[in-house]
Description:
Layout: E1 2-8, E2 11-17, H1 22-42, H2 48-83, H3 88-109
Antiparallel strand pairs: 1-2
Amino acid sequence: MKQIEVQIMGQGYLLSCPENGTAQLLDAVSRVDAAMCKIRDAGKVKARDRIAVLASLNLAFELSELQVKHQEALTQAALASQVGGGGVTDDLGSQQLADLNRRLDQALQADGRLL
């Protein structure tokens, strides 16, 4: 673990970070700083601890929305693959169509006419 110094709403913090996680941590710091500054700049809340709580709630809500959208996308992808995305379902359908075509050809072969 290494330590990096960051600024959030103008205040310095010394944070521990895994060796390969610096970019990800700096991105998180940037998001938190932006969320807190937005609340502070709106002028309704002045206390740093209340701003931090509101910012964390906003970020958690955004994360929850993304997780719901991700789960919906996974569900839609799973349904699409079952309906028409290939695999066993399509193979069975193709085989049934081929059998039906073969039987129709046999029935029409002798006469060559439908009526």
